[in-house]
Design brief:
binds ligand 77M, single chain, binds magnesium ion, 44% helix, 214 residues, seven-stranded mixed sheet, globular, alpha/beta
């Protein structure tokens, strides 16, 4: 049987990137997605916005929902201070298999804990299983209809604190209307839209940055 797109993306990384060099992994994936095959990574334009927020927050603990091939995992982990960790949740085992290899190729496996399974099942277990009290930064990039229920779950499980920052991808395309309405109307959040484009295209998309006020 033929290869999948994530497998072809991984092959491109193994062939063209430099082992242990996160920036070369990022550049190789962006080149592959522009020139060979589009893939649903956050991409370079939105990725630059995400980088600036990661640097501003300089999180001690980070949660990523939706690993896919590990592109944004590498983008975030490369900016984390020594001794800090990123927990990333992936539902699809084939995506997780590729992502582990991309993260390892970048040399960031010590900073990343990839957990396979549905976010709705894993989130309630995070405190006890991984010794996390709260997350300083959450990047939402998984099923678009899971953004709102998982945000409410994070609140209910006491995984957010005053000042925790949520960064949500694809709030315009494919769109997360219920999530957007919630974070923009709730007194518990201070929300801001960063206009950009759907990765590797001219279609509008953007990131929503929402600070939890407690
Ligand atoms: O990660 C997953 C699998 S779903 C992938 C989500 N991402 C998208 O669907 C996605 C899609 C598009 C896009 C596709 C076609 C278009 F024409 C236009 C846009 C762009 C993106 O940037 C995306 O992120 C997961 C599922 C359940 C869990 O509970 C969990 O923890 C994780
Ligand atoms: Mg996305």
């Amino acid at each position: 049987t033929g290869s999948t797109r994530p497998q072809r993306l991984l092959k491109a990384v193994q062939k063209n990137a430099t082992k242990g060099d996160p920036q070369s992994v990022i550049s190789t994936i962006d080149h592959f997605c522009r020139r060979c095959e589009w893939a649903m990574n956050v991409g370079d334009e939105k990725g630059t916005i995400l980088d600036s927020v990661v640097c501003e927050v300089s999180p001690g603990s980070t949660l990523e929902l939706g690993t896919y091939c590990g592109y944004s995992t590498v983008r975030i982990a490369r900016l984390l201070a020594p001794g800090t960790k990123l927990i990333t949740l992936e539902f699809n085992p084939d995506f997780a298999k590729v992502a582990r290899q991309v993260i390892e190729f970048a040399g960031l496996q010590e900073k990343v804990l990839l957990v396979e399974g549905p976010s709705g099942d894993i989130i309630p277990k995070i405190k006890e299983q991984f010794g996390i009290t709260t997350f300083d930064l959450v990047f939402l990039d998984h099923w678009k209809d899971r953004y709102l229920p998982d945000t409410k779950l994070l609140e209910e499980c006491g995984l957010l604190r005053k000042g925790s920052v949520l960064m949500a991808d694809n709030v315009i395309c494919p769109g997360t209307p219920d999530y957007l309405a919630y974070v923009r109307s709730s007194p518990k959040y201070d929300s801001k839209y960063f206009k950009s484009h759907l990765e590797y295209t001219k279609v509008e998309d953007g990131l929503e940055k929402s600070v939890y006020l407690g």
